Amino acid sequence: MKWVRSSWRNWATVCWWPVAARRRWRADPAQGDAIDLVILDLIMPGMDGGKTFDRLRSMAPDMPVILASGYAINGQAMEIMRRGCNGFLQKPFNVAVLSQKICQVLNKAGGA
User: Fold this and answer.
1) Could you tell me which residues are beta bridge partners of residue 51?
2) Of 20, 30, 59, 85, whose CB count within 10 A is highest?
3) What's the structural domain count of the chain?
4) pTM of the full predicted structure?
């Protein structure tokens, strides 16, 4: 829980300003090493969650990804999970549920 609280500002920046995050990553791909986890929305303008997930995997194959959606985990969400997405969050969710899922995915990714 401490990690989530201390990193909340960084998480919010990536989630709420994805264009700035993409520009930063393009400008210096090594910045990808500073990203521990991606929370990916299924429905987004421009590029949907499935295409974004595939692009993330091509750029950073070991990056832990949590898919978030207001829809049930079926159809496109289930297909993304089958392709190796690390977790699913049903919207709406609260900070406690988010913290638990982040810890679960990072612990699994770290081999704990």
Assistant:
1) none
2) 85
3) 1
4) 0.72
- Domain contains 95: yes
What letter represents residue 53's amino acid?
F
* Residue tagged 């421009």 (tokens): 46
In a domain, 112, yes or no: no
Q: Supply the range of the domain harboring residue 62.
A: 2-107
Would you mind telling me the total number of residues written for the chain in this entry? 112
Pull the structure tokens for residue 69.
């959606």
pLDDT at 92 over 80: yes
User: Using alpha carbons only, how large is the chain's radius of gyration in Å?
Assistant: 13
pLDDT number for residue 111: 58
**48-75: pLDDT as tens digits:** 889 999 998 998 899 999 999 988 778 8
The three-state secondary structure class of 38 is: strand
